[in-house]
Amino acid sequence: MPYQAPLPREYYALMPEIAVSITGIVIMMYDAFAPKGSRRGAGYIALAGLVAAGVSVAYLWNESIPPAFSGMLLTDKLRLFFDAIFILVAGVSVLMAMQPLDDERLPAGEYFTLLMFATVGMLLMGGAGDLAMLFLGLETLSITTYVMAGYRRGDLRCNESALKYFILGSFSTGFLLYGIALTYGATKSTNFLKIQQAIASGQITYEPLLTIGVAMILIGLCFKVATAPFHVWTPDVYEGAPTMVTGFMAAGPKAAAFAIFARVFVQVFSPDVPNAANLAATWTDAVALIAVLSMIVGNVIAIQQTNIKRMLAYSSIAHAGYALVGVLARDWQSVAFYMLTYAVMNLGAFTIVTILARQGDEKTELDDYAGIGFHSMGLSVVLMIFMLSLGGIPLTAGFMGKLVIFKQGWQAGFHEVVIIGVLNSAVSLYYYLRPLVVMFFKERETPYVPPKVTAPFYAALAISVIAVFYLGMFPNRTLNALEMNNASKDAKAPAAALPAGGVR
Amino acid sequence: MTIQQIVFIVFALIITAGGVGVLVQRNPLYSAFSLILSFIGLAAMYILMGAQFLGVIQIVVYAGAIMVLFVFVIMLLNVRDDELHPDRHKYLLYIGVPLGLGLIAEVFYVVTRVQIAPAITDMHATGTVGTVERIGVGLLTEYLLPFEATSVLILMAVIGAMHLAKREKE
């Protein structure tokens, strides 16, 4: 097969990744030569790089680009929409981290470098057109998050969190990799399009091999998105990691893993592919069970938590369960929209926790929030907005996300799962409202000094609050961009297929 | 019996012996050495299948670098004799052996059912599938993007290790 060098157009398709990678390297250089004690500069460089990446995503949005780099990189709406989410998450995470890094005298250069390359990993996952790229993107993201989780090296809980995440994460990566190997053995390719062709033409070496491979990929991904019964790492890791990292972990890597979920399960192993009906039925059953389990386990255990970070960890398990309903409905648009809404409200909530937590995350118990409602009125009201949004109260992003995803699930015929989801969402209001009750109606026993809120925090909060209300009240533009509003379900087929053609 | 089959059987026995050695040795250091034996047999298997490059890499990376790491860790931890046999290992034996036998049965079942596709004919030692040349061309053409992404991954591992390991400045 004669090889053609990548066309300039193919490099265009890689622009967001290139922009963010260069930013990461520039930050390292800046950190080496900048005067000691200046920590903010690295953050501003990171923000500039993310803006550049955002612009390139916007540029790619209306282009139609065939699969690039021998089918390794797919450029379609799925990739670009998730890319936008990743860049937004990374941007808010940078803003959220600037002040705490200053206060705790942690090295800012490495932190923002790691954050940038974690973003590169997420972007590669969004555009992956090959199981090899999927794995590399996921590993880049995972290794950076392991380090970020243990960023506060002197703190024992932080070390515990990083080590737990690393060991269990590596274990789950083993499952994913084994699944990839078996899938390759069954289909003789790691390329998504070629896998589909192999299934469609019946050229599978041995069908159970493919089934086991897909099951193992499912297990690996379920670990990454933190769904029951693969969730046990989540609370400890979320609690021990620095809050700014937890905020990033709950929003970014989760969205990235869902991007892969959408790509692999909604598109590649879709029942629309000839001969794939059996396989699709198998994973649909498994995912339905996992979704229901996650919703129930997440919400029931969250009720008993007294630490706000643990509570949000269990809430993130429950939210992963809701998002899986979109995977079940084989509708990646609703998953993408849900991830966007979840990312903004979750980042917002974690920003508030960061502000209130102070050095070393000492104040993350619910009792630390007692009675602060009238001392720090602004912060409390904003936290209330995020909590109500996480609970799914109308006019907020959380409501819209749930509405869209449950509607698609219902239309696709998963009535039981949707009913369990709605009931669970009612249950979840109990623990989302509890911090509010504690803040406004409980007497405080210890003295309280309102924390100082600096400009980066204001920016992070402003972005989150505006996004929560924008997505909650005017979701039409975003949904139109995802081509969801032309409600005819027949028109879904082209959007659900892989971008075809041009695999050389 | 062809010469290939004889070579295969010899090295298969070496691999199995190494694997059994890992399990039955009492000293973890000897287990590590048995593992090297197993790795070398595996490298021979790769070469037998025409994957010369993979065979060499197997020795350089696994039998070389990774085993050195293992041995370092074992020696640094320096487990005392009385800690070598915690009680819980006894009941694990009753769970582990049936599970292992189950796995063997499973693998046997799957392997006997897989049809080797006629499309793959380039698998004998005279083929060019596993040469350095083919892999080099593959890395810089079809797999260019994964190759670059791997370098990003390794860079991250270096930075992460550096941050976690470096001495605190006071």
Walk me through the structure.
- The complex is a heterodimer of chains A (504) and B (170).
- With 504 residues, chain A is an all-alpha fold.
- Helix content of chain A is 73%, strand content 0%.
- In chain A, helix 2 runs antiparallel to helix 3 (40-61), helix 4 runs antiparallel to helix 5 and helix 13 (308-328) packs antiparallel against helix 14 (332-357).
- Chain A is globular.
- Chain B is mainly α and 170 residues long.
- Chain B is built from six helices and no strands.
- Chain B starts with a helix and ends in a 5-residue tail after the last helix.
- The model of chain B has no long low-confidence stretch (mean pLDDT 82).
- The chains are: A mainly alpha (504), B mainly alpha (170).
- Chains A and B meet through helix 5 and helix 6 of A and helix 6 of B.
Average pLDDT of chain B, to the nearest integer? 82
For the secondary structure, the number of strands of chain A is 0
- Approximately how much helix is present in the residues of chain B? over 70%
CA(first)-CA(last) distance of chain A: 9 Å
Main CATH class of the largest domain in chain B:
Mainly Alpha
Net shape of chain A: globular
**Strand residue content of chain B:** under 5%
What percent of residues of chain A are in strands? under 5%
Quaternary status: heterodimer
Q: Order of SSEs of chain A, N→C? A: HHHHHHHHHHHHHHHHHHHH
Short key terms for the protein model shown above:
heterodimer; A: 504 residues; mainly alpha; 73% helix; 0% strand; globular; B: 170 residues; 2 domains
Secondary-structure map:
The complex is a heterodimer of chains A (504) and B (170).
Chain A: H1 8-13, H2 15-33, H3 40-61, H4 77-104, H5 108-127, H6 131-149, H7 156-187, H8 192-200, H9 207-225, H10 233-240, H11 243-268, H12 277-303, H13 308-328, H14 332-357, H15 377-391, H16 397-411, H17 415-441, H18 455-473, H19 476-481, H20 492-496
Helix pairs in contact in A: 2-3, 2-5, 3-4, 3-5, 4-5, 4-11, 4-14, 4-18, 5-6, 5-11, 6-7, 6-11, 7-9, 7-10, 9-11, 9-12, 10-11, 10-13, 11-13, 11-14, 12-13, 12-17, 13-14, 13-16, 13-17, 14-15, 14-16, 14-18, 15-17, 16-17, 16-18
Chain B: H1 3-24, H2 28-48, H3 52-77, H4 89-113, H5 132-140, H6 144-165
